Structure prediction request, 844 residues.
Amino acid sequence: MAVKTKPPKIADDTARRPMAAGRIWLVLAIALLVGGILNAPGLRKTALGQPLGWQRDVAIFLSDRLNEVSNPLFLDQPRAGLQALAGRSGDDDVDLSLPSPTRPANPRLPPKVPVKKSFSPLAPLKVAIAGDSLSITPGESLINLSPATGSIATIGSVDGHVSTGLARPEVFNWPAHLSEVISAGGLDAVVLTLGSNDDQNLTGDGGVGPLLSPEWETEYRRRVGGLMDSINAKGATLFWVAIPPMSNDVRYDTRYKPMNEIVRSEAAKRPGKVVLVETEPVLTFLGSGYAQYLPTADGGFIQIRTGDGIHFTRAGGDLVAEAVLAAMRKTFDLDSWRTPSTTSASKKGATTTTGPTPTTTEVRKKK
Amino acid sequence: MLFPTISFAIFFMIVMPVSWLLMPTRHRWKLFILAASYFFYGYWDWRFCVLIAGSTIANQVLATAVFRSNNERTRRIWLIVAVATNLGVLAYFKYYGFFVSNAINTLNRIGIEISTDVISVALPLGISFFTFQALSYVIDTYRGTFKPGRLIDFAVFLSFFPHIIAGPIVRPAEFIPQIDAAHDPRKIDASRAFFLITIGLFKKVVIANILATQIVDPVFSSPQQHSSLEILVGIYAYAIQIYADFSGYTDIAIGIALLLGFRFPQNFDSPYTSTSIQDFWRRWHMTLSRWLRDYLYIPLGGNQRGKWNTYRNLMLTMILGGLWHGAAWTFVIWGAIHGSFLCGEHFQRTRRLAQGLPDPVDTRARRIRSQLITFNVVCVAWVFFRAESLENAGNIFKQLLDPSQWFSASPLITLGVVLAIAAGLVEQYIPKDAWGRAMARYSHLAPVWQGLTLGICLLVINTLGPRGVAPFIYFQF
Prediction:
């Protein structure tokens, strides 16, 4: 009598069937191909965001081929459906358009300075904080320091997007994003930190290079001015935080200083509407240049920059936040609500400001 | 190179077949895998390769000197040199900023002004992990439990790319014998590897990143701006985030090593199901726990030298374990909390034994209560681990307990956050045999179906994860 052989038991992990290396490679290749086709729109956006060069070109070429398969066969729809479920429709859209500055009605007349607005706890200054990785720690400090003013309400968390700027709209389109943010939040002001990732050739509409050539400067100025105007057009005042000194002095002197100068001159054209918050005066030890540590009031030192020589520690973030608050106090009336009988004098035309308020941090430069 | 990237996928699709093709000629394989590992590590910064090469040569020389010496005193001296060199390099890179800032503060207070324009030192990735492995190599040689092999074997052990950045911390006796052992390219435990990699990717890319960006980072950076409920959920979310992030990385590392024919020790075993802090340390970062036990706690005397010495050893081990993560009081307190609870549990156990009392009956209700208490103690300790300063940790607790914030609006608690926390917890309560059955069933599918299934998993992970992948939390350690 024939003995029946039972099928292999698969009830426990000893019943796993091993696989040969060649088959594993085949499974992985199929997985990557299927995953690539199903994720084609996202891969294209990722490819566009790569650093400029042949690797980016290859990535774009390959992702385009995947999209050519995915799109006609509707294989990109499951991704779109999942994104819709997660409330992230439009994640894969790429918007390369960047606004240009708006022309003043009469260019011969000096720009009109808006009246200094008053804010109070009942009608606070509604502020959004956004920018690249350098915006995150100072932005968090600003969120922490703002309640003490009584008249500033920061909206949401820091809207930080690392490795972004105005140079590469395909990576992140700041003008489009901020337009949406301001419209949704009914904001009075935006604190923006941008520029430290922009020392590269410009892509998107009007893309040019090489870096800091006259053509580059013209286009970067257009983008900076366009962003400023698009924010002002929504009724919000812009506080643009200047690129701080970096431990790489050469990079700072030859690239970031000229970029700060572009922002400074564009801000000067929009008095009372755009304020450049200077960072070098509050972050330097001996009058100018990079400092990793600053003296404290008690004779010690405190670290203000992280080990990479670029980003901020909490103490450094507090210093920048205080500089922003000082700029806001110059631009708006934030304190008269405390003494209703006294009206504060309005100063018109302040476009730049430096230095922290003298109360909220122990970090002080030595005299 | 990060695991969840296209560059790594391309790298692995080349390295894996070449590795198996070269396996029969073992010397060529070693040279190839060493080159691939250095490429992987040097992808961030080529100077890192110089550091690991230096560490490899120095530790091989020292281990050989320990092994060849017949004189106990000389052997001991070589061992001390090895420990001091390894810990010195580690301290230089990890604690440089801490030492420099304290040194210039002290000098300034006694009137010696020095420039603060100090050179910043970037922390080489994975230095803690490969330094601990190198120390194991020399110490095991000293103890006579391991005989140092050839330089190339040690170099492969130290730099093997699946574990170089964030572990698991593998012992030389676990790995080096595998190098020359027979590997059958037709019998690879692929289904387990695919499960580990896929689950690891989901934990890191989806769960950890969602929790980090949507609740943990905002809550810990500005606790005063959030309601008590958001703080509470933020603390639980961080517990899940760090678990998903770190265990996700090691799951991927173990899976990648399996596909190359190597077995790594388990690093996590459902740690939030623990019923005590001692149980937790048997399940959390298991390879670090046993490293600390074997190379620190036991040499200190363990529990063999009386009650008070046991408590001292437990506290010292946990505080030094905390300091391993960085020179900050927050890490000291994190270690001290765990040390104190370990001492408390030890005290209870010894008292019960002394009184001749039986172990408490293991009921379901008792187990659930123990799990809840342990999880919440671990979460309290995580607050110190995550906080950027003691003041920050204090603000977290203050806001959590502030009655005026108990019923404030909590917009950060979204469905996505709740689901991510639930997923991170539920994953730990799925019975092991259920995973085993699922893997077994999967392993019987045809390669095409296996590939299709993995491709669909990639769709879900890539779509639900945020664009770009944040570095793993444990890279900084």
